[in-house]
Amino acid sequence: MIKNQEKLTAIVENYANTTIREVATQYDASEQFPQAEWDYLVNLGILYMVVEPSESLIPSYKAFIRLIRIISKQFPALGSILLTQASYAIWPLFQFGTAAQKARYLEPLLKGEIFGSFAANEIDSGSNLQQMETIALETAEGWIITGEKAFISNAPISTLFSVVSKTRSLKGEEGFGVFLIDRDTEGLTVGPLENKMGIKSLPVAGVSLKSVFVPHTALLGDVMQGLKQVQSVLNRNRLAISAQAIGIAQGALDRGLEYVSFERNIGKRLIDLKTNQYRLADVQTKILATRAFLLQTLDEAPDDTQRVAMIKLAASDLAIDVTETIINVTGGYGYMRNNEIERFVRDAKITAIYGGSSDTQRYIIAEPWRLKS
């Protein structure tokens, strides 16, 4: 494990620009999990950056976010796998888990020996807790949980599920909780692998819970503070998705520039056309501006839900707009499956969906104005 952040970043960037770039399209075509690349990265210790002890966790986490952007420039699906493990499995346990919960799960998650999933999303309500149908009923011995979760990242390979649920205590008090549930728990079933438009190497499936019994010790942090916990987790996830989206935009631009710069036997290069120069200049400017906004948010307000929603919205819009522009600039070439550009177009769309849709981010941004008296 490499502890020097600058050295680690340089190694990961070189690995991403060489090995990962070479295999990304093959993985996209086969829809296989990138096990060798996963093993290499976790053995470097990059997941420890999420929990590295320091006076402030932000410097280390900021470096991890940078790695998500770097990896996503070449292979966005691998970025998704990493950010899911970091923000949906490791972060909630590190931030809110009891000593016993951390002792059992944290180290295997950090080493990449096991995978974890955050089971919040439902088919009708998304990640809206107020509309969630999953319910946990307290008994004298523990909790009985029933519900259906949809489109859960890493679910097909996960050993640990952090299940978000409405709760009803023995006293009749209602609230929300996050429950740590092992895959082999009776009543928990992982559905078939979903067939997706993009991010094809990220395994996604539904999770069914039918009268799943867990002891009281399964409640994350041993407290019913699900609203607070989920919001913290979503903020971390959205920051990572923002980095992924910026990486996707830059990756698409890099590939577009390679194509338009080719020397042609007849006529000018595409980059010699002023219209293309102007469009690509706008693209690079927007990428750097959005990247600066992300860095500012990480420095100043990583826990400000409204600010986090703004950067997530801006970054996902950027990824979609940039990949569309690159397709338009490169024409038929960019549309064909024998190059990497169309993969980035498909992969970009998910950034406006998972972690909360773009309209959800707009609602979060506007909510303080609506509530202001």
TrEMBL record:
Cofactor(s) listed in the protein's UniProt record = FAD
Q: What is this protein called?
A: Acyl-CoA dehydrogenase family protein
Every copy of the Acyl-CoA oxidase/dehydrogenase middle domain together lies at 117-212
Question: From what organism does this protein derive?
Answer: Candidatus Enterococcus avicola
What keywords would UniProt list here?
FAD, Flavoprotein, Oxidoreductase
Q: Which residues form the Acyl-CoA dehydrogenase/oxidase N-terminal domain?
A: 4-113
Entry's family note? Belongs to the acyl-CoA dehydrogenase family.
Protein's UniProt keywords contain Repressor: no
